[in-house]
């Protein structure tokens, strides 16, 4: 058993938070992207993977004709997560995305979990788009590529693709080389492909409005008998899920912009985690163009291996877990951070002598304000319902506990409505009673969080309807995660086990015992 002192130090290292620089928010990476560049990057990534890859795959394998409803639910989850991301982007405009936001809000352990899952999401996103591009090229060539590799390189292993995709590997490595030249050069290429992409979509939409007729939605009596033919058309659509844009010969621009959009964030996550000591330090090196060269090449190799081995369906399912988990954690961080008594993002200069003196003073003395806080920290139902008007350590701790309870209730509610649907539909007493208890507890927990005082610090953008909107975001994201298959969770567990091994291998850096940029005075217990 570990001694009390080292064990407490270990726990504090895992939950301590990070302070980021406030003076100009400098970064060693080149900041040369304009608003137009960022919009093109996001639009290109979304249109490529979401419209041309996921639509057909999800409609065929999961949702069927209700693909429109699926996209509406996904849009709802994305909008709520986007609002939470926007607030954190205004608070902490530095490289790292949800990884950095989690590090600032809830601590080092959850930050590593978030970053590790973001790596998985971006790797899978890149690999899935590359395989989709390869499959489209194979369709254009009469499936000659697939026939050749099935004949000579067939892989008869469960969980892997039917054959290794060398073409997808070539595409990923080629675009990794393009990103290595610098952000500005790759941004120009992405804008060109995204512009062509948007023009083609506008052409399709305008043509549909011009040629469309609202009378086609009405069915007269003489055509009711012919409705049975709809089922044949539905199966025909399933057969042609890969062939939608083959005759346009412009699908290369769709997938190229999406592939660039998927590959762009991954090196930044690797760079940010390596800079903080959570991954290998060589990943934090930048070249003369201020681009993370080593991280970019490493990301390309990892994505190429995934595209080489796994099929599209497996990649899409695994990607969903990492993305939804990141969405949930960012929404959780918004809830926690808005109720903290102080929000400090400046990173003071580190002087070892002053740090040692301050540490000794903290151990030997307790200030009068701390004594007052201890005297006022008696928890009761009265303080829960009618807390102080300003946030304190007590109210912050209360919110932390309530958010943890909220996450537990959401997990239980999602599991019950997913695996107990049959019992709920049959009005089994235990299932309906448990459902009512979970729903009421969920609502009461949100109302109790809403009663707590918020921090009054203002930033450029803040999530509206707090805490209702982040809580709903957590509910939707966790519910969607529960819907995923057992095989997907097994692959996800393997990825997390690999991350745990890296944690053990990198334990001195992971704990950051010698890293002065971490704030040891703030904990989320």
TrEMBL record:
Gene Ontology annotations of biological process type:
L-arginine import across plasma membrane
The molecular function terms of the Gene Ontology recorded here are:
L-arginine transmembrane transporter activity; L-lysine transmembrane transporter activity; L-ornithine transmembrane transporter activity
The answer to whether the entry has keyword Transmembrane helix is yes
Give the signal sequence positions. none
What residue ranges are annotated as transmembrane? 38-55, 67-86, 98-124, 166-183, 192-210, 249-271, 291-312, 318-339, 402-424, 430-449, 461-482
Keywords (alphabetical) are: Membrane, Transmembrane, Transmembrane helix
Identify the GO cellular component terms for this protein. plasma membrane
Give the bilayer topology.
Multi-pass membrane protein
In what residue span(s) does the Cationic amino acid transporter C-terminal domain sit? Answer: 461-500
Question: Where does this polypeptide localize?
Answer: Membrane
Pfam families from the UniProt entry: AA_permease_2, AA_permease_C
Q: What is this protein called?
A: Solute carrier family 7 member 2
């Amino acid at each position: 058993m570990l001694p009390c002192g080292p064990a407490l130090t270990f726990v504090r290292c895992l939950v301590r938070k990070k302070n980021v620089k406030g003076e100009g928010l400098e970064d060693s990476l080149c900041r040369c992207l304009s608003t137009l560049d960022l919009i093109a990057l996001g639009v290109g990534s979304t249109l490529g993977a979401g419209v041309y890859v996921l639509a057909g795959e999800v409609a065929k394998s999961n949702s069927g004709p209700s693909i429109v409803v699926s996209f509406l639910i996904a849009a709802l989850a994305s909008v709520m997560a986007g609002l939470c991301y926007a607030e954190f982007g205004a608070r902490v405009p530095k490289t790292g995305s949800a990884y950095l936001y989690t590090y600032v809000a809830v601590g080092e352990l959850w930050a590593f979990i978030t970053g590790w899952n973001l790596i998985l999401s971006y790797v899978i996103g890149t690999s899935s788009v590359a395989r989709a591009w390869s499959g489209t090229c194979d369709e254009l060539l009469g499936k000659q590529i697939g026939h050749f590799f099935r004949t000579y390189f067939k892989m008869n292993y469960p969980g892997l693709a039917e054959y290794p995709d060398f073409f997808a590997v070539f595409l990923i490595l080629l675009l990794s080389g393009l990103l290595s030249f610098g952000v500005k050069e790759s941004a120009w290429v992405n804008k060109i492909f995204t512009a062509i992409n948007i023009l083609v979509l506008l052409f399709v939409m305008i043509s549909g409005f011009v040629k469309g007729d609202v009378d086609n939605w009405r069915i007269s009596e003489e055509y009711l008998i012919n409705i049975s033919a709809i089922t044949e058309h539905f199966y025909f659509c399933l057969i042609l899920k890969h062939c939608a844009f083959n005759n346009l010969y412009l699908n290369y621009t769709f997938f190229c912009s999406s592939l660039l959009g998927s590959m762009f964030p991954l090196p930044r996550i690797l760079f940010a985690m390596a800079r903080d000591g959570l991954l290998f330090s060589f990943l934090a090196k930048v070249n003369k163009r201020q681009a993370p060269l080593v991280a970019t090449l490493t990301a390309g190799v990892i994505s190429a291996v995934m595209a080489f081995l796994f099929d599209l369906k497996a990649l899409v399912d695994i990607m969903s877990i990492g993305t939804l988990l990141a969405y949930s954690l960012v929404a959780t961080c918004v809830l926690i951070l808005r109720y903290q008594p102080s929000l400090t993002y400046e990173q003071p200069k580190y002087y070892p002598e002053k740090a040692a003196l301050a540490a000794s003073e903290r151990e030997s003395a307790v200030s009068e304000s701390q004594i007052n806080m201890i005297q006022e920290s008696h928890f009761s139902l009265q303080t829960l319902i009618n807390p102080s008007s300003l946030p304190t350590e007590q109210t912050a701790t209360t919110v932390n506990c309530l958010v943890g309870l909220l996450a537990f209730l959401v997990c239980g509610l999602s599991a019950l409505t997913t695996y107990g649907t049959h019992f709920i539909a049959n009005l089994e007493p235990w299932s309906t009673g448990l459902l009512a208890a979970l729903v009421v507890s969920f609502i009461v927990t949100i109302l109790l969080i809403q009663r707590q005082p918020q921090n009054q610090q203002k930033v450029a953008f803040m999530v509206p309807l707090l805490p209702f909107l982040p809580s709903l975001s957590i509910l939707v994201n966790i519910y969607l995660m529960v819907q995923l298959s057992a095989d997907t969770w097994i692959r996800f567990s393997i990825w997390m086990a690999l991350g745990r091994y890296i944690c053990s291998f990198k334990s001195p850096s992971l704990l950051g015992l010698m890293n002065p940029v971490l704030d040891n005075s703030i904990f989320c217990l």
